[in-house]
């Protein structure tokens, strides 16, 4: 896999794991996770994917990619 | 005066109310249950003995330790006589002296008198005790019936058994039973005919049940069981205490030396992790340190098609630094990174991450813990607040129920397994959750109360089913939960697991474990007293690894099994310093002490100390680095002590990543598989060649001490310093203790750690802080590190790796006792007599369907690739499941594993791969091609003649 394919698979997988906990907050949780563990280039790639017409992302993963792109929201509350 | 840590008091210590007695006119106070022998030894009135030693329960067979006790008849054996209040004991009377000399005389008359040429001369208790009882003469002569012609058994690669010297004291038999728990030895026959035997009469040590732990050798008072190396090299002159560099148990050893040569490694009696025990790896398998394959000169090459060119350290550092600088100038700051090693010391690991963050100017640092225990870090931090196990190893002695999930301690963590087995023999109950019938399920005098052989990949479903039983049957410890955890989160979790879809009956379809067994196991865990969970890579190396760790933490919190001895959640770490590598800031998003790189406060602390500004963004993990390399944006890497090409999943993808890089720097003992695609090779040093510390699975920080000079001239930490300075960093560490001082300065959990304190304390379990200056054996005692314990809902999300008509079987992987990880070290020792090659275990039903018999070659194919290896037909694995190890590069088991990984940490899913197995004629084309390429890549130019 190249990075683009890999981040799509990862974002979907992360979102799927948060959805089972709570669908309503899954996008935020996924976004926090992405912001906490992914380097900026991976975040940029997932954002590109989310902005395509037919992203290979679940609805939660797509929402998460858009939220994660907003740096200020994601870094807030970091110790 | 400090007590001699190796002193032998004859019988084990006891803990009881004080008892006062008089020995040879002196008043002595000892705990109730202590033997007269031990009390006397503590009062400096050591009594002669042969069959007693304080690592074993007393036996009372040799009759050398007789004493007189006022008011008692005869001359009782002091080793089997417990002290009583007011007892008056005499240890040296004329009658006793005479009796003892008589006993000794009988022993010596049947013993070869070749002391001067015996390999154990001056290291023999028989010799010492003969002197102690004043034996000068043997009245029976030496011509009577004796055992002096009995042939020696030299089958074990590391020790010999010479029955001519045996005094039949049974110490070896008892050591194998009590300490190791293998029960391999017996005393055959009676009276004069009695002799030590390894199992059946026709068995020698090698063919017996013996696992070569060395406990019997350490216990033997004569040269009957003796290390071959003592005969080959001579008796040791000095000893240095150090720590085993193999597994996460972290056994403490005395490296007994002659000059710069190790004569033997003897487990340290006062080692707090191992309490005097060892396994075959740490005890005997250090021969790799001098193996001919060791590379001792730095080497470079412009292209991996070229042979290696040996160069000086200066040239190697300068070349590597200029390449890294060129790459960053061309492709950007993020185009390089580093990988630290769980096999190296804390100090070395800390320096590698510092090099990346302060020198490369990014956070592209990761560690091999990524592929083993990264989910432990994530899961335990989320639930408890600390990325580490909760207990010390001693805690197992207080456990009433032991739940082992996804771990095979007798092979992976043998010394801890022995301690666990000892507790199980005392009556603790065992639950094993594992697809395979691991040895622990049934071993001498131990039988699991429940073995739940689940489908690989269904841990979360099984643990949820157990939680369902605990909650719906009212077995949860709600008082503990109310006091210690967030009650709202608990209620949400309890409602979730109580849903009917999570009952064992419904989930049986997924786990394939009969519901009744799950219910019984859950009830036992919740109600059987102190319950402790031990887990390993069978938990973490799954796409749900982090979820499983959190599910385990949930179970422990819900039943109140946290915060005191005998309970807890205990990851059994694979490699010696996995815990340390994680603690030292080896993850791309975290500084040492698990502080996120985005956190301004933590970052500023480091920036101030290091005098640089740090990138606040997380860097790349190992799989992301390889992806980025395939993308063409990641071009250079420094890899210390890690063979990613052999150990990481999906070999073909790793290979593509390595091939796409322009400067791969491998720092290792040997030209490993990754080095075949490297441009710079820095020769590494073994644990015998450097100072430092390792942190074991119980958070115990222990010293590694240099006993010989590094073969390549530099210890590993000095190599990283050399590279850093070539990059212009101006590091000036004179000794690893200075690196530890920096770690302590920058890492709150290590705040109180120093080499001086380690010297006096022996070892320290972090956190070592002002509040806990001597360390912390049991964590979360009064409150969780994160405040309130957090219940996390963990639903079962099946892996994407699915069986189907083309790949109908599930492959799971593991390790065996005598080999270690990718085998780089153990394959280069005599341990290969136990494991020459990796084999594929397959159930008789599946084997028959495919026309396979034990010993046949089979093709093992997955969606990722295929390899060939020989099969072993066994019902240890369930139908539908196959199992192999990954110790040998020829097997290339990771050609088959996929890129699926844990959702939270990218820890690879080694434990579940859909495969097909079919007959084959031998190694696959890929294996043959790979071998040829590897041979080409390992060529070294002859060194230029010195001028
Ligand atoms: S080496 Fe260990 S397993 Fe083997 S016989 Fe001795 S004590 Fe038993
Ligand atoms: S082999 Fe050693 S320990 Fe075993 S019975 Fe003989 S003398 Fe005792
Ligand atoms: S149990 Fe582990 S640490 Fe102990 S000797 Fe064996 S390999 Fe070394
Ligand atoms: S030492 Fe007490 S009987 Fe042998």
Strand count, sense and barrel status of the largest sheet of chain B are:
7 strands, mixed
Unreliable stretches of chain B (pLDDT < 50, length at least 5) are none
Largest interface comes to: A-B, 24 and 38 residues
The radius of gyration over CA of chain A amounts to 11 Å
Contiguous low-pLDDT stretches of chain A (5 residues minimum) are: 72-79
Describe this structure in words.
The complex is a heterodimer of chains A (79) and B (947). Chain A is mainly alpha-helical and 79 residues long. Chain A has helices at 3-19, 23-37, 40-50, 59-68, 71-75. Chain A has 5 helices and no strands. With 947 residues, chain B is α/β, with parallel strands linked by helices. Chain B folds into 5 domains: 18-117, Ubiquitin-like (UB roll) (Roll), CATH 3.10.20; 142-290, Alpha-Beta Plaits (2-Layer Sandwich); 299-372 and 577-750, Rossmann fold; 383-571, 3-Layer(aba) Sandwich (Dimethylsulfoxide Reductase, domain 2); 809-936, Barwin-like endoglucanases (Beta Barrel). In chain B, the strands form 10 sheets. A 7-stranded mixed beta sheet of chain B has the order 13-12-27-26-25-14-15, with helices on one face. In chain B, strands 31-35-32-34-33-36 form a 6-stranded mixed barrel. In chain B, β1 (18-23) and β2 form a beta hairpin. The interface between A and B is medium-sized, with 24 and 38 residues. Residues 244, 246-247, 249-251, 274, 278-279, 281-282, 413-415 of chain B line the site of one iron/sulfur cluster.
Overview features:
heterodimer; A: 79 residues; mainly alpha; 5 helices; 0% strand; disordered C terminus; B: 947 residues; Ubiquitin-like (UB roll); Alpha-Beta Plaits; Rossmann fold; seven-stranded mixed β-sheet; six-stranded mixed barrel; 29% helix; binds FE2/S2 (inorganic) cluster
